[in-house]
Amino acid sequence: MNRHRTALSVLLAAGALLAGALTAATPSVAADAPVSFRQQHSQGFWTAERMRSAAPLDVTAAPGTIRKAPSPADRPTRVGATTAPASPTAFPQAGGAWTGGGAVVKTSGRVFFTMGDRTASCSGDSITSANGSTVITAGHCVKYQGAWHTNWVFVPAYDNGSAPFGQWSATRTFATAQWAASEDMNMDVGLAVVAPLNGQKLSQVVGAQGILFNGGYNKKMYSFGFPAAAPYDGTKLVYCSGNSSKDFLLTKDHGLGCNMTGGSSGGPWFQDFNEATGLGTQVSVNSFGYVFLPNRMFGPYFGNEAKAAYDQAQTA
Fold first, then answer.
1. DSSP three-state, residue 171
2. Phi, psi dihedrals of residue 175, rounded to the nearest 5°
3. For 168-186, how does the pLDDT look when each residue is reduced to its tens digit (9 = 90+)?
């Protein structure tokens, strides 16, 4: 048993969450830690130069974070419109700039925030919600090492320092209870509710993607994000596509062949993705990769825990 725990710890420590350049060990967090945080912002903080220079966040997976796999009794729950099956003209794709247009260009974007005196970045997506103002991303893109990120903004359709649809400031950020309590890598899901901009809600301006919980494994998937670590530079929306599988090592995550790097964390994974319309059903986010499995991305399974966080955010 001790030998098994030692091997597990070594493998987990080797698994690096895909994000970028600030490496640290994960401490334990009190089990009763809050799962939401009220944001405060400095007006005009995110200049074009600050956005360009924000470091893609890099964290390290810690031992002791494995939880049970989804129960067969967990039933699929879908929110938002469904789409027709895609015509996979670029399937599979290990990683390349998205040139197909469609809704995903506007619903996807970069996420920027501060960690103490440092600026950092991730990716995110606008999703269908009761409040019309909900962004989904990775848990470590809203909270890490027991501290919530501040100055959190979502920039849909980010374009090399410009924000063609504006900067959407979060009023409140959320994480699954399991991520907030112990930074469980299986539950690396975060969300944000953003304030209206010029009198309009986020979904009114950029649209929103549907979302599905407890949808199962082994699907045709498309993953999107704004990787900012070499060889990428954060200026383009990048995608991967292929047949997903279940992580056979240490988590219950989805796995997908993908070479995206730091900064792509939090970007959406879609099944039923239609390349013509750019619409899909979101079932995960970019989360982490094992250093000994190059060019493979892993994303959390959206189960009941992720749905609970989503329900809390979408009605806030």
1. strand
2. -145, 160
3. 999 999 999 999 999 999 9
